Amino acid sequence: RPVKLSDYHVPDHRVTNVDLLVTLHPTATRVVAKLTVERHPKGRPAAPLAFDGDELNLVALTLDGAVLAASAYEAMPDRLVIHLPPAGPFTLTIETMVNPEANTQLMGLYRSSGTWCTQCEAEGFRRITYFPDRPDVLAVYTTRIEADKAEAPVLLGNGNLVETGDLGNGRHYAVWHDPHPKPSYLFALVGGDLASTSDRFVTRSGRDVALRIYSEHGKEGRLAYAMDALKRSMRWDEEVFGCEYDLDIFMIVAVSDFNMGAMENKGLNIFNDKYVMALPDTATDQDYAHIEAVIAHEYFHNWTGNRITCRDWFQLCLKEGLTVFRDQEFSSDMRSRAVKRIADVRLLKAQQFAEDAGPLAHPVRPELYNEINNFYTATVYEKGAEVIRVLKVLLGPAEFKTGMDLYLARHDGDAATIEDFIACFAEASGRDLGQFFLWYRQSGTPEVSVEGHHDPKAGTFSLDIRQTLHPTPGQPTKQPMVIPLALGLIGPDGAERPLLTEDGQSVPGVVALTASRHRFVFTGHTTRPILSINRGFSAPIRLTTDLTEADLQFLARHDGDAYNRWQSIQTLASRFLIASTAAIARGDAALVSVPLIETLGAVLNDAGRDPAFTAQALSLPSEADIAREIGSEVDPDAIQAARLALRRTISDQLGDELVATLSGFAAKGPFAPDAAAAGRRAIANVALDLWAANGTESRLAEVERRFAGADNMTDRFAALAILAQHAGTRREAALGAFYERYGSDPLIIDKWLALQAGIAEPATLDRIKTLLANPAINFGNPNRLRALVGSFAMTNQTQFNRPDGLGYGFLVDVVLDVDAKNSQVAARLLSAFRSWRAMEPGRRGRAQAALIRVANAPSLSPDVRDIVERSLG
Ligand code: ARG
Ligand code: ZN
Q1: pLDDT digits (tens, 9 = 90+) for 428-465
Q2: DSSP H helical segments within 438-507, as ranges?
Q3: What percent of the chain has pLDDT over 90?
Q4: From the candidates 121, 264, 298, 329, which is the catalytic residue?
Q5: CA-nearest residue, atom 8 of ligand 1
Q6: Does 704 qualify as catalytic in the annotation?
Q7: Of 196, 305, 381, 715, which has the fewest beta carbons less than 10 angstroms from its beta carbon?
Q8: Are 117 and 255 in contact (CB under 8 A)?
Q9: How far apart are CA 598 and CA 587, in angstroms?
Q10: What is the b/e burial string over 530-545, where b = at least 16 CB atoms within 10 angstroms of the residue's CB?
Q11: Domain named Peptidase M1 membrane alanine aminopeptidase: which ranges (predicted)?
Q12: In angstroms, rounded to a whole number, what is the distance separating the alpha carbons of residues 71 and 421?
C-alpha cells in the first residue's frame, strides 16, 4: 500500500524521552528502551498506541512498571499495539533482542568487520526497538552501551559522553546523552576495537569541540585529510550560513559495510569508509574531492537536517537538496567555482536527467511512495540542490540570505515542510513564490528552445523562447515553470554588450520565463551579437538554441562565463557526435569535423589559463550523454563507434599539442591534494588519454612507462585506465601488477573492479563473471558489488546493453540473488534499467523481458518490487 503525502496526520502518540540500555552481543544484543510517552494533543483522542517494528522480537513489556496482560497488547515483528493506552503521560519499557551478526540488510544495528554500528535513516530504528519511527517524533536520547572490553573497547553514542565505568568480568559501559531533541532516524551507536585520530575546533562563540575520526586499526594514517576537511567545513558554515556546532564532541566513524555514502547521526556521523580514507598512494584527486564534499555534507546536516528536520519523508529534499546545495557551495569556495559547477552539471545530467526522462521520474518532492529507500535519488538530492540554486538566482543573493536566515531562526527545533521553507523566502523577499513551487511538484526536465533574430536596421536583437515539459509518470499535463535564464550578449570583439530593453531600461543579466512563450527584445545592436544563455547553468533545463557552429566556436573562446565556454564545446561535440552516430547507423563512415578539432586545439593551447577547466573542456560527452541527447531508438554501438572515431582523430591530428600539454603539466614536487595541483594532474591525464587514443604502440608503451613510474594513485590509475581500453598483454600485465600491489586493500580493489567492468568489449561480461566468482573478493560488501556490477550496469553502455540481452540477464541474476540479503543494494542496482525504453526495439524487447523476469520472481523485497513495477510502468 503506497504512502501518500495527502494522508499526513500528526502521530497519535509522541515520545519525549528515550533511555536506552544496549548490551552488545554478536548474535543476541539486548535492547531495553524506556520511553516517556504521551498523547499528541492533535492526535485522534481514543486511538490505540501503535509503534513500528521490523523483524523485532519482544522479550518484555511494562507500562509504568507494570507487566501488561497478554490481552492488552499485540506484539508482531512489524508492529506493537497497546489497545487502551492511558490518557496521561506514561512510561513504556520495551525489551527486544536483535541479532547484529545476521543483519545483512545493513539497516538497524549490524556488524561491519566486527564493529557494531547502526543505520537508522530512513526506517532502521524500528529494527532496534518498537517506536513511532517517523521524523516528526522528536525526543531526548540517553544511551547506555555495555560490552565486552576486548571486543569493544570503544563505545560511542549521540551527544556528549556523560559516564563510563567498569562492570567487572572484562565488561564495561559508556553513557551518552544528547540534549537536542531528535527523530529516531538520527540515532546511532558504535562499539568496536577502533583506532582514531583527534583534533579540536573552537567555535566562534568559544565552544571547545573535541573532534575524533575512527577507523579500523592500521587505517588511522589515512584520516588526516578528512579531519582537515571537517575543520574547514565547521569554519565555513559559521562564516557563510552562520551555523555553529552545538555539542562538546563531533565524531566520525568509518565502516566498510554501508548501504549509502554516509549518515549525519547527531554528533556521531557514520561513513562509508570510501568517503573518509585518503593518502596520495591510495586515493585519486577525485576521491579527495568526494571526501571533502561528503564530510562537509554530513557536517552541514547538523543544521539542515538535524536542528531542522523533516516532518515526513516526502520532505526529504528539505534537508537533502539544501544540504547538497550547501556542500556544493563549500567545494566551490575551497576549489574553482567554475570547475565545480561543470562537475556538478555533468553529474546532474548523467544521473538526474536520465532519471527524469524515464519510468522512474518523480518530483523533487514526491507525493506517493511504496518504499522510501527508493527515493534517495538524484532527483531528490541533485535536482533538489538545483531548485535551491534557481531560487537564489530568482531572488538574488541578498534576499536569498535573508530568507535562509529566517528559515534557520524560525524553524530551529522543528520538523518542517517545503511549504515552511519557501514561506521564509516569500516573506523575506515579499514575492509570490507560487509558480516557483512547481519545481518541487512537477517532474521531468523542462525543455527550452531559443531563437535569436537580429534586425540591423532597427538595431534590435530579439529572443523567442519557448518552454515545454513533457508528461511524466502520474503527470499527464503540466503547467509552465518559472525559469531564470542568466544571459549575456557578446560583441564580435568579445566584449559584453549592455542589455537594454525597448524602453531603454537596463536588464540585469537574468530573464525569467513564466509562460510557455516569451519574446525579449534588446536594443542598441547594429551588429549581430552572440547570445550566451543559461550561463552558469542557471536553470536545470534541456536547452536548444539556433546558435551556429561558428557561434559556438566563438563562445568557446570568448564567453566571459566559464561554464558556458565549457558548454559551448560540449554542444559542438555533442551535435557532431549525434550526426556521426546517425551516419554510422546508416552504414556510412564516421564524420570528421574540422571546426571541432580546431576548437579543441585552441583550448589545449590555452591550457595554462586554468588547467582544471581545460581538463573538463577536453573531456568529451560520454556515450551515455550522447544516448540521452538522442533520446529514443538508441543504438549504443553506433554511439561508441562515433565517439571512438573522434578520439582517434583528436589523437592523430592534435598529437603535437597533446604532447606539449603533457610536458607542460608534468608533475613537479611532492604530491599535494589541493585544487591547483589536482588541476595540473587532470589536464596531463586527459591529454595522455587522448594522445594514446589512436592505440599506437609507442604511445601505449609510454603510458605503460608512466603507469610503472607514477608516484601517486591519481596518475597511476589514470594510466591504468588508458591501458585498460586497449586489448592485449599490456593491459593484462598492468591489471595484474596493480592487483599484486593493492590486492589486500579493498577500496583500491574497487577501482580495479570498476575499471574492468567498464571495458567496452564483448569479453567483459565473462571477465565480470570470473571476477564475481573470485573467493578472495568479498562481494557481500556493498562497495565491492557496486564497483563491479553497479559500474557495469550504470556506465558500460555497449556491454550492459548488449544486443543479445546477456548484460540485462546478468544484472537480473545478480539482483535476484542479492535481494534476499540486502534489498536496498539490490533495488539500487536494478534502477540501472531506468533508460530501457529509449533503446532501439531489439534491446528494448530484451530489457523488458529481463524486467518481467524480475517481476515474476517468487519472493521480492518491497524495494525491488517497487523499482521493477515502476520501471515496467
Ligand atoms: N542522509 C544520508 C545523507 O544523504 C543518506 C542516508 C540514506 N540511507 C538510506 N538507507 N536510505 O547524507
Ligand atoms: Zn544528506
Answers
A1: 999 999 999 999 999 999 999 999 999 999 999 999 99
A2: 438-441
A3: 99
A4: 298
A5: 121
A6: no
A7: 196
A8: yes
A9: 27
A10: bbbbbbbbbbbbbbeb
A11: 225-437
A12: 45
Residue 169: Cβ within 10 Å count: 8
Segment (H or E) for 520: strand 517-523
Residue 261 CA to ligand 1 center (angstroms) comes to 7
Give CA separation, 715 vs 221, 338, 681, 719, in Å: 21, 23, 7, 6
- Whether the CB-CB separation of 98 and 29 falls below 8 Å is answered with yes
Which pLDDT value is given to residue 667? 80
Question: How far is residue 827's CA from residue 807's CA, in Å, rounded to a whole number?
Answer: 17
Q: Is-contact 461 490, C-beta < 8 A?
A: no
Give me Rg for the CA atoms of the chain: 28
Atom of ligand 1 nearest to the CA of 107: 10
pTM (two decimals): 0.99
Q: What number does the ligand 1 atom closest to the CA of 373 have?
A: 11
Identify which ligand lies nearest to the alpha carbon of 271: 1
If you ran DSSP here, which 8-state letter would residue 861 be given?
Answer: -
Return the closest-CA partner of residue 339 out of 113, 569, 613, 602: 613
* Residue among 118, 260, 325 to mutate when testing ligand 1 (max atoms within 8 A of CB): 260
Pairwise CA distance, residues 708 & 448, whole Å: 49
Supply angle C-alpha 703, 706, 708, rounded to 5.
115
Predicted confidence (pLDDT) per residue in 52-103, tens digit: 999 999 999 999 999 999 999 999 999 999 999 999 999 999 999 999 999 9
Q: For residue 144, give the nearest of 267, 28, 31 by alpha carbon.
A: 31
- Strand bridging mode 309-310 / 415-416: parallel
DSSP letter assigned to residue 42: T
3-class secondary-structure state, position 771: helix
* Residue pair 572/600 in contact by the 8 Å Cβ criterion: no
CA 663, CA 334: separation in Å to the nearest integer? 27
Q: Which amino acid belongs to residue 257?
A: D
Q: Cis omega (within 30 of 0) on the bond before 701? A: no
Please give the number of the atom of ligand 1 that sits closest to the Cα of 305.
1
Question: Does residue 121 line the site of ligand 1, with CB under 6 A?
Answer: yes
Cell of 9: 496526520
Q: What are φ and ψ of residue 545, in 5° steps?
A: -130, 165
Report pLDDT digits (tens) over 589-643: 999 999 999 999 999 999 999 999 999 999 999 999 999 999 999 999 999 999 9
**Do strands 171-182 and 268-272 pair parallel, antiparallel, or not at all (unpaired)?**
unpaired
- Quick one: which ligand is closest to 183's CA? 1
What is the ipTM score, two decimals?
0.98
Name the helix (H) or strand (E) containing 146: strand 139-148
Query: Rounded to whole angstroms, how far apart are CA atoms 711 and 714?
Result: 9
Length of the chain: 873
CA atoms of 345 and 7, how far apart (whole Å): 35
For residues 339 and 330, give the distance between their C-alpha atoms in angstroms, rounded to a whole number: 13
CA dist list (Å): 680 to 337, 442, 657, 687: 16, 41, 16, 11
What are φ and ψ of residue 420, in 5° steps? -60, -45
For residue 406 the three cell numbers come to 529566517
46: left (phi over 0), alpha (psi -120 to 50) or beta: alpha
Q: Are 386 and 348 in contact (CB under 8 A)?
A: yes
Contact, 823 vs 862, CB < 8 A? yes
C-alpha cell of 853? 523476469
> For residue 313, what is the DSSP state?
G
CA distance 254 to 214: 6
Is 634 a pocket residue for ligand 1 (Cβ < 6 Å)?
Answer: no
Distance CA 757, CA 765 (A): 8
